[in-house]
Write a structure and sequence with these properties.
The complex is a heterodimer of chains A (200) and B (393). Chain A has 200 residues and is α/β, with parallel strands linked by helices. Helix content of chain A is 35%, strand content 24%. Chain A has 8 helices and 8 strands; from the N terminus they run αβαβαβαβαβααββαβ. An 8-stranded mixed β-sheet of chain A has the order 3-2-1-4-5-8-6-7, with helices on both faces. Chain A is globular, with a radius of gyration of 16 Å. Chain B is an alpha/beta fold. In chain B, strand 9, helix 2 and strand 10 form a beta-alpha-beta unit. Classes of the chains: A alpha/beta (200), B alpha/beta (393). Chains A and B meet through helix 3 and strand 3 of A and helix 10, strand 12 and helix 11 of B. Chain A: This is Methionine biosynthesis protein MetW. Chain A: It comes from Pseudodesulfovibrio methanolicus. Chain A: InterPro entries: Methionine_synth_MetW (IPR010743), SAM-dependent_MTases_sf (IPR029063). Chain B: Belongs to the AB hydrolase superfamily. MetX family.
Chain lengths: 200, 393
Amino acid sequence: MRFDLQVIATWIEPGSRVLDLGCRTGSLLAHLTEQKSILGTGIEIDEEAAGQAIAKGLSVIHGDIYEEIEDYPDNAFDYVILSQALMQVLDPETLIREMLRVGRLGVVSFPNFTHYKNRLQMLFTGRAPMSKELPYEWYNTPNIRVIPIIDFRRFCRHLGVPIVKEVAISTHHHDELGKVITFLPNLFATFGIFMLGQGK
Amino acid sequence: MSEYIDQIETGESVGLVEKQFFTFGADAPLVLESGRTLGPVTLAYETCGTLNKDRTNAILVCHALTGDSHVAGFYDPEDPKPGWWDLMVGPGKPIDTDKYFVICSNVVGGCMGSTGPMSENPGTGRPYGASFPVVTIGDMVRAQRRLVDSFGIDTLLAVVGGSVGGMQVLEWSVRYPHRVHAAIPLATTTKHSAQAIAFNEVARQAIMADPKWNRGDYYESGRPEHGLAVARMVGHITYLSDESMRHKFDRRLQDRVELSFDFEADFQVESYLRYQGNKFVDRFDANSFLYLTKAADYFNLENQYGEGSLVAAFSRASCRYLVVSFTSDWLYPTYQSKTMVKAMKKNSLDVSFCEIEAPWGHDAFLLPNTRLSDLLSGFLNKVCLHCRIGGPA
């Protein structure tokens, strides 16, 4: 399992109710179900990925996360996870508010755009940076946003959403190994992972 | 539902099966939703696999509008075609008869051995005809429950079915929430759209406009074959899709190189529909078609159980659901499946949903489809694990 998902998994209390937005083929849900006996549901827009997740025996809804999240009652889940999908989200403010309506806690992970390698690429080549975390050209990327860790913190303040927990990590996109970055995370971390509370 | 499928995908055949009959209600007739009574009632059914010691591995398969209890295997080694869902039901298949005990019954109102309009009315000694009481999906399910009871089965591991069979699945899950662990409604709806009712009405009018229909009393005088064939043709169009018809027929001519300038079947699609219509006449009763389409039109889960609210209706349910729709199904389009999924979610029910990309229209659930097979087997495995079901005794 991806390193960022491993970190997220350590944050989840056993036996809790979890909603995984953009769950792909359900590797995190399967891990949490087996290791932590959670009651999990996923939402995935890709038919093939959703089909594979359901065929694994997971509960998954094939559909768009904005539409699908609306149907859940308030506080239906303990955790709502959005891992490596925020870059593709059209309206992050609405989605995060929805996550914290249906879940007690929200968990968000994303590639840190201001990682030093990206900065160096821009500085020396003058081109839009491409990395293992963001491996697309400007013309074919599904990512419509770039998210530096410090900007995400500002965004949470703007929303009035408390950051309950935060960790920055350095790992390659699909690597199972990685390390936690405590020194200048906005410069040295490849991913940021945040746990958000409901606020007032 | 289209005619039986030729291709067999994976797994083995269940082999020879036998049509059986279960009769109940001779002393206490079934009180129908209309208030009328019916009894005795016979259901034709088939089983495959073995019921385990605890009677916990039973799966009820519900057939679509004009299907029957012959779900898998063969009646006779010489049969050219197996049962209608042989793709899915058998040893090593998604509904694995090495693990599950499969029951499939023909519905009340049908004509494949279950009590229906062509059965003898015990009061008159003649076929019921149009004096047969109007039955509902709920009535069909209540009769199925009696059959399930007769096996001593308290809770079904799963109820599975597509189209009108899917309506029965939904009805089971809401009417008998404590008797169903899991429900798999495929290519179905909680209520017919005006469009679906409209097509059924055209089909019924075709039958009733046939002079041989004779107000349903035709069993001695000759059947309304032409009307029934036209009804089937209308239905058949709704089971396909624009794309599948274009792919299969386009505007190709049938056995000719130029237009005939008369009303012969010039086009392949005309010839195909005529063939399907005529073939249907050989195996189906026109009155049954009237009653079954009416039952499908009357089905309205939210009115029946939720005073107009689907969320309230599903608040009665407690099983796990796997809902599946198909992209090109214009009879029961995906939005109808999404509506039921939404109501299930609002009740915090455990639901999975997948819209499968398939160009073949409503009939897709009857055709070979790896995605559907994987979904069914994975979902059923999970249900089994959750219920701690072992194999047969």
